[in-house]
From TrEMBL:
One of its GO terms (cellular component) is nucleus. It holds the Pfam family ELK. This is Homeobox protein knotted-1-like 10. It comes from Ananas comosus (Pineapple). Keywords: DNA-binding, Homeobox, Nucleus. Belongs to the TALE/KNOX homeobox family. GO terms for molecular function: DNA binding. It is found in: Nucleus. InterPro entries: ELK_dom, TALE_homeobox. Residues 49-69 form the ELK domain.
Amino acid sequence: MSVPRRSVVFAANVDEVVGSSEEELCSADAEPSDGFHEYGSSSRLADHELKEMLLKKYSGYLSSLRKEFLKKRKKGKLPKDARTTLLEWWNTHYRWPYPTIAL
């Protein structure tokens, strides 16, 4: 039996890592209109349990990675391609860098 692979998303907030919000949790309690109530709620429950288990297991690692990434951002350097693109845009729009409203 193979286990499906899931990608890990790094987020600034623990709720974002878990992928649950108040709206999502409330919608999980509501009955779906397509008639797959049992399948939908059991898979959501399994997903929620998996997310909780992964969060408990890797929360320390994720928070240390988050702190490390926040430190790296403070340097203020962009990748060369991004810097070049921004400089090209600025050279084109430096006289009026604000979007105009077309009526």
